[in-house]
Amino acid sequence: MQTIGAPSIGNLIVPHLSQRLLLARVGWQYRLSSLHPLNQRSFASSNDGKKNGEADGRGRASPGSSDSSTKSTTSSSPTSSSTSQSSVSSDWDENPDLNISAFSQLPSSTFGHNQHMIINSEFKEALRQILWQFRAPIRYAFAYGSGVFPQTASGSKSASTVHSHPSPAISSVQGGQGKMIDFIFGVSYTQHWHSLNLQQHRDHYSAIGSLGSSLVSRVQDNYGAGVYFNPFVTVNGTLIKYGVVNLDTLCRDLSEWDTLYLAGRLQKPVKILRDDPRVRLANQINLISAVRTALLLLPSDFTEQELYGTIAGLSYLGDPRMALPAENPNKVANIVKYQLPNFRRLYAPLIENLPNVAFHDPRCKSLDWMDDPETNATMAQDMDPKKRGNMVRRLPRSFRSKLYFRYQTKFQIPQLEFDKMLE
Fold first, then answer.
1. Which secondary structure element, helix H or strand E, spans residue 144, and what is its range?
2. Which one, of 279, 264, 301, 271, lies nearest residue 378 by Cα?
3. Least crowded by CB within 10 Å, which of 6, 8, 123, 328?
């Protein structure tokens, strides 16, 4: 049995998101009238003179700004200088070079380190041993879902026989719950990969596998989100589900939100088992885009959990499964609640370089607050319509074009006038 990645989630999300973004207020409307600044505030941790634009996560002013100095660090800074992105040069999210082939070509030596979650070392090794059971070359791989990152209290245990003979590390981390572990494999050549994998693991495929790797790859690349899943497969005594995606498809979705299918998964904590420089760069674009989108949906004052909950919920907006009684209505809240330190590791280095948002909580002065799951820090953002309009302008291209079209249709703006607004 296999499944194909779902159709464009972005198409389902845009109607929900466009209504909540209130683009007439936060978008390009400020260009057409003399709106006064809305609810502007002074941020102690962003005295960098960036008055006309929203920061880009690289520690430099956005286009149109008269100052390119970096955001200064305060005692409440969520990360140390070692994890800060403020030293990163080059406009990596506006003009990314997704043709790089080495990690040395990334904007800095620590670029994207926030994407790597820290998990039990024996558990990590057990996951990597599963990858070694595939002879077909896997360039990029990550494990995700509740089988890797618990979404319930650690004390709740229930005996399960899902895994036939799992490693002790997997049994220990899952607490006896026996959850299937989900993987995504990024590959360079789809047909070649399936050809090799069919020779080794024909039993992983359903009847479509008997028709050859050419048909399997065509189904993968031409339908849905470009991901071909083989679910309910046992490897090393562990029940897994793995999806195969071409690296070009993965990078395109991460950088442009073409479908938001894989981008949505990587907006939540995952365990990267094999890394690739192109994917790391594209995913950093995905993460900063998720922060910008969440800020557009939030009020001036909010909490960490509200921010991360909004980000985690992006890929579920418009998802018909969330309306089904079988789906846990608290799924997004549970993801954030039990993975709060991991969300901080993922997003705090990006947040601290944005001049229009800051942590405003005395608890952030503590050196160990990053690992404290009980801290739900308060935050605040500048509601200046120009900065918010600039955030809209920096949303991923494919997603932004859908959003613009929705705006044009809603207000019945003639095409010529609409084109002038976008200039």
1. strand 140-144
2. 301
3. 328
